[in-house]
Amino acid sequence: MIRVLLVDDQPLIRSGFRALLDLEDDIEVVAEGNDGDEAVALARQHVPDVALIDVRMPGADGIEATSRIAGEPGLSGVHVVILTNYGLDEYVFRALRAGAAGFLVKDIRPEDFVHAVRVAARGEALLAPAITRKLIDRYVTWPPRPAAKLDELTNREREAVTLVAHGLANGEVAARMAISQVTAKTHINRAMTKLQARDRAQLVVIAFESGLVRPPHQN
User: What radius of gyration, in Å, describes the C-alpha atoms of the chain?
Assistant: First the structure.
């Protein structure tokens, strides 16, 4: 069962999302909140698999909530997905840097919304490669700031991270590197640990910000 926390300061939005999720046999909404402070408190209380958090709320917003949740070792298994009305903007990028697994625009189709919750619960990033490149291209400061531990990566780990940053899934990374999926996942997980990336989305951000991967216009 996928356990979900919903946090949005608009009750109508929350009730709409909850109605969609309540129709699914494998998803349970365990709590609802109104702001970032409640998001953190409820995450501590329920430790959900997925926390759907509005990016802009009065008081503590989704960015602060994401940062606080991502910073607590006991909540390392909580995958934060940012909800936004605005699409690609600086708030979304800041949330990704803070540790969000991805973002969803609130006018998403119902079937895509439910699918996204399942994807997030599996620990996969909710970022299409094209969207990632747009975010990085718009908000990363150039020249890049090298990650402190980038030099600790092995050549194979660097290669795996580069492929992930270009949007490849584990199976595609394995095929490109001519290794098993288990080995590919091991390389990726070790790179995440060394770079202190919470998840694949943050790993992608680090890859671009460090200069390991460069946006097309910088090549």
Answer: 17
**Confidence at residue 164, expressed as pLDDT on a 0 to 100 scale:** 87
Helices (H), the chain: 11-22, 36-46, 62-70, 90-98, 110-121, 129-139, 155-165, 170-177, 181-194, 200-209
Count other Cβ atoms within 10 Å, centred on residue 145.
11
Which residue shows structure tokens 């070792």? Answer: 73
pLDDT tens figures, 104-157: 888 888 999 999 999 889 887 776 555 666 666 666 655 555 555 788 899 999
Q: What angle do CA 6, 125, 52 make, to 5 degrees?
A: 5
Q: Residue 114: count other Cβ atoms within 10 Å of its Cβ.
A: 18
Nearest partner of 114 among 78, 76, 81, judged by Cα: 81
